[in-house]
DNA sequence: TGCGTGACCACGG
DNA sequence: CCCGTGGCCACGC
């Protein structure tokens, strides 16, 4: 993994998220070795919204809540995208979050 | 230059 | 995953 800007790194990991799976800001931050900077990951993802190459909708907080849905074109767009991938959502909360959770630390086996 | 804010998280109670 | 507090990094004013 190239060590460019933190943003580019976050974007790169986000692109690797498989379809139908989700991950958390903290997981990405942890994978990048800056676990305590999870907030910056969220900030980076916000900047990645205009970039359609990056599935920002597959990134939620650590409990599976769509905290960033308000940042999309419409508050329901994020949920709709996830549901299209087979992910169930109830009240902005991902159901079976543990089953669809994708941990870059394990999956990418650093 | 300094301070407030934020798609967060870990910890103690 | 309750609740309050501290810490982290980047950005805008």
Helix content: 40-55%
Structural class: mainly alpha
Number of strands: 4
What is the beta-strand fraction? 5-15%
Can I get a quick summary?
By secondary structure, this protein is mainly alpha-helical.
Protein described:
- With 110 residues, this protein is mostly helical.
- It has six helices and four strands; from the N terminus they run H-E-H-H-E-H-E-E-H-H.
- The strands form two sheets. It has a two-stranded parallel sheet with strand order 1-2. A two-stranded antiparallel ribbon has the order 3-4.
- A hairpin with a 2-residue loop joins strand 3 (89-90) and strand 4 (93-94).
- The chain is globular and about 35 Å long.
- The termini are close together.
Throw out a few tags for this protein.
two-stranded parallel ribbon, two-stranded antiparallel sheet, 110 residues, mainly alpha, DNA-binding, 7% strand, globular, 40% helix
What does the secondary structure layout of this molecule look like, with pairings?
Layout: H1 6-15, E1 23-24, H2 25-31, H3 38-48, E2 59-60, H4 77-84, E3 89-90, E4 93-94, H5 97-100, H6 104-107
Parallel strand pairs: 1-2
Antiparallel strand pairs: 3-4
This protein binds a DNA duplex (13 and 13 nucleotides) through α2, α3 and β2.
């Amino acid at each position: 993994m190239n060590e460019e800007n933190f943003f580019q790194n976050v974007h790169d990991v986000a692109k690797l998220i498989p379809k139908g799976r989700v991950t958390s800001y903290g997981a990405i931050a942890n994978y990048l070795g800056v676990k305590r900077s999870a907030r910056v990951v969220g900030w980076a993802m916000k900047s990645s919204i205009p970039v359609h190459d990056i599935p920002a909708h597959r990134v939620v907080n650590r409990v599976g809540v769509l905290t960033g849905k308000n940042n999309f074109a419409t508050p329901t767009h994020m949920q709709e995208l996830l549901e299209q991938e087979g992910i169930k959502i109830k009240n902005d909360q991902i159901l079976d979050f543990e089953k669809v959770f994708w941990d870059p630390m394990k999956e990418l086996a650093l």
